[in-house]
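Hi R.,

Here's the chain you asked about this morning:
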Amino acid sequence: MLKEALQYLIGLGNTEIFTTQTGQEYASQSVHLIKQPTPEAIVVRNLSGLVDYLIHNYDDQPPVLVHVASPTQVDVFSTFNNDYNRNHLLRAEALLPRIAFGQFLDAEPFNILLQSCFVPNEARSVVLKVIGNIKEETVSNIGDDGVSQQVTAKTGVTTVENIVVPNPVSLKPFRTFVEIEQPESEFVFRMKSGPSAALFEADGGAWKLTAIARISEYLQGALEEEIKGGKVTIIA
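And the predicted structure, written out as tokens:
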């Protein structure tokens, strides 16, 4: 038993390569590739950190590739190494608030959500006015389109009327890096008795393409010299 074990260990160091008559190459035992080490990506939380890293070329890298992967992530890669793997040098991940789309919230939390997680615009002001002036808990559906709703709300100092809930509404929630203009898109604004309200995304995700394009445009401007010098390539 000991003799066989020693022969096996000796054989581990004597891998032979041979060629068959058909020209195929075989090894006398299994071999495994020892891969080149790759660095762990630095994580930053804004586009400014990514730009600073590339402008100062901290790691003295050859030309790099910047990939706008999504509205919330941008990656920096090197070219291939000998194993055809890329060094993942840096990843920018946006820090964003959690916005509960598609969930009904009571009037007060919904009001706070609109004020804290959305860029001010005319539609946001209209929705806030409706939410902030509701006088009764009942929400009713009106019309023949199955879409329109009305609530009882305060419309003046002493006036209370039934008003139509605006729908759809164009809003600008914080959904991508703060350095760029937040994309505006349409939402279905619905209410139900309680009262409570919810926003449902209604643009089919088109805002994501807008955000990616704006991120790319921002980086093209911030890294103009590096791009001209062939040090940086941006894809989106």
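The longest helix spans residues 206-222.

Let me know if you need anything else.
M.
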